[in-house]
Every structure is written in C-alpha cells, then in structure tokens.
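Example for tutorial group B:
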C-alpha cells in the first residue's frame, strides 16, 4: 500500500518556527496594549453547544458554522427518515456541538454563566482560534486567530473612545499605516427609516457594505434585486456621494437627512461624541466616518468600527462595535457591551508584504556554543547556564560534528553570535566570539560577553 501524502484541510495551515516567532510578536504586542488599558484575559472552549451559536450571526453566519458529529453511533438516535431529508434538519439530530465562529457570542455566554464571579464593567481580552466554513481565499482562512477586547456592563461612550485608542496604539506599534473607519447602526436604521425601507434593512446594509468590492453599479443592481424603488435608490446614492467629504461635512449632511428620524439623530450624536473627544486626544491613525460601513453581524446596535491597511488591499484587519443586548438571549437583559477584534492572520500577511517585522525577532537564539568535544562541553555548560540565568537565549550544538555543519545550523537559525572554545581558549580563560553578521571574531572574558549581550 502506497504511503499517504500528508496534507492539512483547506483553509488551515502549519506554521514554521520562523513564522511563529513573527505571529507571537503580533500576539505579544496586542496583549501588551490590552493590559495597559486594564483588560484581563479569559479563555473559553473551542467548541460550544450549537444552541449557544445558532441564530446569533444571521442566516449566512449559521451556514458557516462547523458542526461536530455526536459521539458514538449517532445515526441510531435519528428519528427522521434519511430518504429525501434536508441536510439542515438532519444536522440538528446528529450534531449538538459546533466549533466557535467568533469570540463574542461565547463571551456573552461566559458573562451570564459566571455572573457572580465577575465585576462590572467587565473588561476582558481573549486571544484564541475561531473556525468558519468559508471558501478559502487570500486573507480568508477557515481556522484563524482573533484577538478580542470587550467591555460589558457600561453604556459610556468613553469605552468606544478607549477602543479607538487601543486600535491606534496597536497599529502604531506594529508599524502599519491604517485607517479606522467608524459608523453607527442607528444611523443606518435612520437612513432606512427615512427612505421607507425599514422592512429591507438587512438587504440595504448588505448592499451598502459591499460598495468597496462591487462598486456603485453593483450596489445599484443589488438594491434593484431586493425590490428598492428608483427614488429609494437615489436616496441611498445621496449617502454614497458624500464619501469623499470630511467628517464634519458628513455629520452636517446626516443631521439634514435624518431630521425626522429620532433613532438616526441619536446615532449621529453618538458618533459626534466620539469624534469630539479626538479633538483634544492625539491620534496617529486616521479616523474616518464611513457611512457605507455596516458590518455583517446582526448583534451590533450602536457604534461600529473597521480598520483597513492603507498600503495593502486585504480587507478588514480589525472590526467590532456596540451591542446592547447580546446577553439577553442567555437570560441577562439590558447589559450593553462594546468590543473589537484584531485579525492576527491578516495583520501577519500585511506585515510580511510590507516587510515591517523587526529583524531581531526572527532570531530566537542569541548565542550558540560550537561543540569541539566532551572536555570542551564540560567547560562550556556552566557558562551556558549563566547566560540563560541572565535572560540570554543560548544553546550548544549537541554533537561535535564538522565545523561547517555547526555553522550552517547557526546561519539557518539566524543566530547572531557563535562562541568557539577550544584547548587554546580554555587555557587562556577567554571566549572566541564570532559576530555572524559582520564575520568579525574577537577574544573576550565571559563577563565582557555578558555585558555585550545584555
């Protein structure tokens, strides 16, 4: 029997050490910013009960849930006839669990379940993988990491302001030139109300959200398909036409357009409150009111955010928003939250494309001792131990093989310093230190090496 060719499922990937050190740099940078703003970590299981997940992401989201077959002889418990049965109906009988689609719904479940163990407002961050049965393409994977930060149990707009500051700091530290797009679901509801299309709100927001991908003509044909009249479509395009105006001009336009919509004006007021804070707070990232931003998830009720790279076309790098009653479906009413999620995989792709990863992070080992034999090993091991105790990543080649092989190993691992200690060096009580980048070699005492590396 021929050996099976190894592979991974479509839309998933293995990560080499060289990739993992870069990914960890992203996670550590994001985590550091989260902690600075007072957020604490939690984790939830990879799988949730389907009853927790279904119905929270809209019809499209439900289709993208990875379902897990019940264990044991799951077909023996099926009551429905298998002949001509619709797969969705069968799925509910053979599958009770699913892989999480995002971190927000599990977070809402977590809050309700641990109500007596947490303090409100509850500020948490969570960095874990999520799964979506999507069609894999560039920048879109079936298994990917989300880095979420949420505050729940507070209606204050200061939370939105803080999230914008977190986004700004993260992308500044990662050296990505980005734009933070902001909108409000209440504004979109107000527009739908003003053009008498409240009953087609979902179709309206989906079409508007696709403007970047399908252009004006595509949006027009989507709206026609959804049954919008010519005058309604013209009203939608009056919104699209102010895209290039500045934030203040857009606010003025909305105040005129939504003058008879209470919910619409409330949304305008919320956006204006956030923007006004940044007249006195410094921000390195552009903050743009984007009236076409809708975000697909049904649970958003207020401010919504999306971040895009200015230099690489890859879709959203970060997104989120305000949700007023996400915990309501789990029995805890009227608890408002707001959160954002960083897409680590897309951020990685952008940084790789722009070549902005710091060069030093690729080298996980700083020093390697060349192995000349048993006597030299015994001499070097205590020195190696001292280096490690002083926080310097170091290793010794495990066998006394040819020098060329050991140097190739150091080169391939991007180790910046190689230490050679033979009979001569041991006799003089010095180390021969080779700088792998410049090729320079110099003799020095251990204390001097320690000083140089620290």
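The residue assignment follows.
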């Amino acid at each position: 029997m021929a050996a099976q060719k190894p592979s991974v499922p479509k839309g998933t990937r293995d990560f080499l050490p060289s990739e993992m050190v870069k990914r960890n740099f992203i996670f550590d940078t994001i985590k550091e910013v989260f902690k600075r703003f007072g957020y604490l970590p939690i984790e939830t299981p990879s799988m949730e009960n389907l009853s927790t997940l279904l119905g929270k992401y809209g019809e499209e989201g439900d289709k993208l849930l990875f379902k897990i077959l019940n264990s044991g002889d799951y077909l023996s418990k099926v009551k429905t006839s298998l002949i001509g049965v619709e797969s969705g109906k069968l799925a509910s009988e053979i599958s009770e669990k699913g892989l999480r689609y995002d971190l927000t719904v599990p977070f809402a479940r977590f809050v309700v379940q641990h109500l007596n163990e947490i303090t409100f407002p509850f500020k948490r961050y969570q960095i874990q993988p999520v799964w979506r049965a999507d069609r894999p393409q560039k920048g879109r994977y079936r298994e990917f990491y989300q880095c979420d930060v949420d505050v729940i149990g507070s209606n204050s707009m200061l939370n939105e302001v803080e999230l914008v500051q977190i986004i700004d700091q993260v992308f500044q530290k990662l050296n990505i030139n980005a734009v933070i797009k902001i909108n409000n679901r209440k504004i979109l509801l107000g527009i739908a109300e003003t053009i008498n299309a409240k009953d087609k709100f979902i179709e309206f927001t989906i079409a508007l959200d696709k403007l970047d991908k399908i252009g004006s003509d595509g949006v027009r044909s989507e709206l026609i398909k959804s049954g919008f009249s010519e005058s309604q479509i013209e009203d939608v395009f009056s919104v699209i036409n102010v895209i290039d105006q500045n934030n203040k001009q857009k606010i003025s336009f909305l105040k005129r357009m939504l003058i008879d919509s209470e919910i619409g004006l409330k949304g305008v007021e919320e956006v204006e409150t956030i923007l006004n804070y940044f007249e006195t707070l410094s921000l390195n990232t552009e903050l743009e009111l984007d009236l076409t931003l809708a975000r697909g998830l049904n649970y958003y009720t207020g401010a919504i955010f999306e971040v895009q790279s200015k230099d690489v076309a890859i879709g959203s790098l970060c997104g989120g928003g305000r949700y007023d009653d996400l915990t309501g479906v789990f029995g805890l009413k009227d608890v408002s939250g707001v959160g954002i999620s960083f897409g680590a995989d897309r951020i990685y792709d952008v940084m790789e494309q722009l070549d902005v990863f710091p060069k030093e992070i690729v080298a996980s080992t700083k020093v390697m001792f060349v192995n000349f034999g048993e006597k030299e090993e015994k001499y070097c091991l205590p020195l190696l131990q001292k280096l490690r105790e002083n926080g310097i990543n170091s290793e010794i080649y495990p066998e006394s093989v040819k020098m060329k092989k050991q140097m190739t190993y150091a080169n391939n691992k991007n180790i910046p310093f190689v230490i050679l200690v033979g009979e001569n060096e041991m006799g003089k009580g010095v180390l021969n230190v080779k700088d792998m980048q410049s090729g320079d070699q110099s003799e020095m005492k251990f204390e001097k090496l320690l000083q140089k590396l620290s």
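The longest helix spans residues 17-36. Compare this with the pattern of hydrophobic and polar residues in the output above.
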